[in-house]
Amino acid sequence: MAVSSQSPQSSESAPSSEYPRSSEFSRPPESVPPQGRSPEAASPRARPSPEPSAGAAPLSSNAPAPGSPGRTDAHPDRPHLTELRLSAFATHRGAGFPLGPLTLFAGPSGCGKTSALRAYEALARLGGGGEVGEVFPDPVACVPERARPDAQRRRGFRIGCTADGPEGPVRLDVAVQAEPELRIVGERLTSGGLVLLETALRDPSRRSVQAAWHTAGSSPVTRAPLPDDRLGTALLPLRVAGKTDGQRQVLAAAEQMVVALRSVFACDPAPERMRAAVPIGDGRLLRDCGNLADVLWRTRSECGRRHGQLVTAVRTGCAGPVVDVLAEPLPDGMLRAVLDRGDGPRTGFERLGDGELRYAALALVLLTGPGVLEVDPPGEVPAAMQTLTVLADGLDRAIDVRQRAELLRLAARMCERGHIRVVGAVSDASWVAGVEGVTVVHLEP
């Protein structure tokens, strides 16, 4: 098990203003190492091996050592994120978080677990072409609380990530202005130390940023305006012709980043919604899992093997005997989710406790795929090249010791296959000890 520790940046080292000026992107990304990590670990090619937080028992990693049998240094076929960077976002400043196949952010309330997942989801939505106003409905809440505006009364935040894949590690850093008006004011896409795309706000009166992307032809770069309300990386396939080797490199890196970001399902099951009957719909699970009955109505008939695994998981985590988990129609045409106990009347989900409902919903999420979840995967990319990432806030909320242990084992087993990754938030990770394949990021308030 890999363990990382992060703590807030001291006020003495905090910048006086958090407005992300274009000059913030003029220096090499590695020139300022993320908080709590060495300059070597700041490199996108480095594998972080941070120390446990104070008071935490040392935990071992299940990853093979470099050069050992079972370790491959080849880049993965499925693009996925390996690091999340929050340079200035909510409670985080200068923070870099390693991301494994199964990553848990752990810490007390107020330490920034939810904001880390929120930043991950925001990057995913921007990567999917989302408009910045839809992605950040309350942008001021993302600005560090004590950040002071600059001379033009501007404040903002900075987030970024690294995606590994066939093109090797590709870094994306984004600067967002929250006040006085919301806009993306800077963006940088790099690979192997080479800047492939860089944007900056030159004229605040225009709703565009000046972009320059690598060409390596008769002209080293191509310059053109891009809109300030969308991620430039997601727009590159529409603007770059791909005629030169440099342009093809830009397109390949941008595609890897977008594919790594696109297939994300953020979920936080709401038991009060799951107890109500629902109409028959498209059978795609919503983020609050309130339409679980509709999804069971569909999946029970479409995939008997996966449904059998769900029944086994629910049997382990719910009280009493469980023979089947299904949806049954009501006289008014609605559906309700029930447990078949095998001994007579079925138990409706309205009778289950919060922990049982959250456990059943999370087990279903882990055992399904993009076709069953409310996500928008990149349809132009073969499924074999995609990785679904599940963001689960409050993964241990309301569930008991037995349920969370079974969920963790199920998540680790599914993540081993490579087609799914999980990033969750828990209040305490002491119960994770002994489970292989888990990366724990300890946060401190």
Short description:
It is built from 10 helices and 17 strands. The chain is of the alpha/beta class. The strands form 3 sheets. An 8-stranded antiparallel β-sheet has the order 3-2-5-6-7-8-9-10, covered by helices on one side. Strands 1-17-4-16-15-11 form a 6-stranded parallel β-sheet, with helices on both faces.
- Work out the strand percent: 25-35%
Helix content: 10-25%
Distance between the termini: 23 Å
Overall pLDDT metric:
84
Structural class, by secondary structure, is alpha/beta
Principal-axis shape equals elongated
Order of helices and strands: EHEEEHHEEEEEEHHEHHHEEEHEHEE
Major beta sheet, strand line-up:
3-2-5-6-7-8-9-10
- The helix count comes to 10
The main sheet comes to: 8 strands, antiparallel
Rg computed from alpha carbons, rounded to a whole number of angstroms: 23 Å
Oligomeric state of the chains in view: single chain
Q: Tally of extended strands?
A: 17
Explain what the structure shows.
The chain is of the alpha/beta class. Helix content is 24%, strand content 25%. It has helices spanning 39-42, 113-127, 132-135, 232-239, 245-262, 271-274, 292-302, 304-317, 354-367, 401-415; strands spanning 2-6, 80-89, 92-98, 102-106, 155-164, 170-179, 183-191, 194-200, 208-214, 221-227, 264-267, 324-329, 335-340, 347-348, 388-392, 420-426, 439-443. The strands form three sheets. An eight-stranded antiparallel β-sheet has the order 3-2-5-6-7-8-9-10, covered by helices on one side. A six-stranded parallel β-sheet has the order 1-17-4-16-15-11, with helices on both faces. Strand 5 and strand 6 form a beta hairpin. Helix 4 crosses helix 5 (245-262), helix 8 (304-317) runs antiparallel to helix 9 (354-367) and helix 9 runs parallel beside helix 10 (401-415). The longest helix has 18 residues, at 245-262. It is elongated, with a radius of gyration of 23 Å. The relative contact order is 0.16.
